[in-house]
Design a protein that fits this description.
- With 453 residues, the chain is of the alpha/beta class.
- The two termini are 28 Å apart.
Length: 453
């Protein structure tokens, strides 16, 4: 019996074919989620999408078996972006949506994300209830199973990609076209390898697609939103106006301008927010972003009379803040851009189209329009640790953090946290003094590395 926590900041995630990402736990998760979402007398349905990882076949089959045994009809979408699953959950009136993906992680990992009937990721409370069903000592696999005559049926949805393509295209402003623009799109050998080039081409762009030949093991391998080097080179080599890098499940985007320079999520949010404010389209008093976003973004928004509402790390927490505060733009520096006018979660393709729309209307190259504010020096380093280790609880790490805060003395920010998706400690600092920031981060990283040996 597993004793560790099942859900992290973005569903269940880990090494494929090791707990908790095993066929058995996926089956139990489907049984538990099915028990929660099969309340009421109507026929229940669940949709399942996945990215291109080899382990997706194993998890898809196990989840399908669990849902069918609970009397739920299962609709299989095949490889499709996470935001497509969220959209189709609502569109197809499903009780539950499931995405099998570990996002930007390497192919060896995989994960399971759950969406409610409204297309939003499940709340902490619902995840806790499902987790207790899976991990609790009183778990009974046969509880709530459907009678033989009421077992669910499974079928493939052949037009799922087409539905999503048309949905994404509908978000692009009417009257605009991508005619005359050359766009390089890095599909990360992931879930958007078919839909992303198609959307851009059908809107008129001259498309150069890279990392669009998945083989089950090359997702995010030297490509995508986390590894933009190849995209930067391709943009310059092909004379493109813009480069777009998606991650493995295409819920995030990083943009590269025509000079081959990366534009991160903070700049993209600032660009869209400023444009929407000018058009009278921005809802609420600002935007939502996580504690990782640069202080330069907060200052820039302040000059526009807008607020930056900071949240915990994780796009689900950004979405929760947006709904609570009535905002329609939010996101993360890493490229999760949420625009609630269109989607319930981050959508890399929709965000890319909004950026392209702003560039077209401004009639300026991305290298100019995409430099909205000057970021403060910020440095982020990751330290990997082994399962079971607790480096942040060690005295030498606590002392290093205290010394770093004293050195900054109110002139910057220091943020140390455990990743919710990988066994990493993330150490981030920002402030006016670049040299001081580097020293503070290096000292803390050294202490964490020593504690993790």
């Amino acid at each position: 019996m597993m004793t560790r926590k099942l859900f992290g900041t973005d569903g269940v995630r880990g090494l494929a074919n090791a707990e908790p990402i095993t066929a058995m736990t996926a089956l139990r998760l489907a049984l538990a989620a099915g028990a929660h979402f099969t309340r009421g007398g109507h026929r229940h349905r669940v949709i399942i999408g996945k990215d291109t990882r080899l382990s997706g076949y194993m998890l898809e089959t196990a989840l399908t078996s669990g849902f069918l045994s609970m009397g739920m009809d299962v609709m299989l979408l095949g490889p499709l972006p996470t935001p497509a699953v969220a959209m189709l959950t609502r569109s197809m009136r499903a009780d539950l949506g499931v995405m099998i993906s570990a996002s930007h992680n390497p192919y060896e990992d995989n994960g399971i994300k759950l969406f409610g009937p409204d297309g939003y990721k499940l709340s902490d409370d619902i995840e806790k209830e499902i987790e207790e069903r899976v991990l609790g000592t009183g778990f009974e696999p046969v509880r709530g199973l459907a009678p033989s005559a009421q077992l669910g049926r499974a079928k493939r949805i052949d037009d799922a990609q087409g539905r999503y393509i048309e949905f994404v295209k509908s978000s692009f402003p009417k009257g605009l076209s991508l005619e005359g623009l050359r766009v390089v799109v890095d599909c990360a050998n992931g879930a958007a390898y078919k839909v992303a080039p198609t959307v851009l081409w059908e809107l008129g762009a001259d498309v150069v697609a890279i990392a669009n030949e998945p083989n089950g093991t090359n997702i995010n391998a030297g490509c995508g939103a986390v590894h933009t080097e190849r995209l930067c080179e391709q943009v310059k080599a092909s004379g493109a106006h813009l480069g777009i890098a998606l991650d493995g499940d295409a819920d995030r985007v990083i943009v590269v301008d025509e000079t081959g320079t990366v534009i991160d999520g903070d700049q993209l949010m600032a660009l869209i927010a400023e444009s929407w404010q000018s058009a009278g389209r921005l809802a609420g008093d600002g935007i939502a972003a996580t504690v990782m976003s640069n202080l330069g973004l907060e200052r820039h928004l302040g000059h526009l009379g807008l607020k930056l509402h900071r949240t915990s790390v994780g796009d689900r927490y950004v979405v929760e803040a947006m709904r609570r505060l009535g905002l329609n733009i939010g996101g993360e520096q890493s490229g999760h851009i949420i625009m609630s006018d269109f989607a319930t979660t981050g959508d890399g393709l929709i965000a890319a189209l909004q950026i392209l729309a702003v560039l077209i209307k401004a009639d300026r190259p991305a290298s100019q329009a995409g430099r909205v504010f000057t970021p403060l020096p910020q440095l982020l380093k990751n330290v990997r640790y082994r399962p079971g280790q607790l480096p942040l609880e060690q005295a030498l790490v606590k002392d290093a953090i205290a010394a770093g805060e004293a050195a900054l003395n109110g002139s910057g920010r220091l943020l140390i946290r455990k990743s919710g998706t990988e066994p990493l400690i993330r150490v981030m600092a920002e402030g006016e003094d670049k040299v001081l920031i580097a020293r503070v981060v290096d000292d803390i990283v050294g202490a964490v590395e020593a504690a993790a040996r």
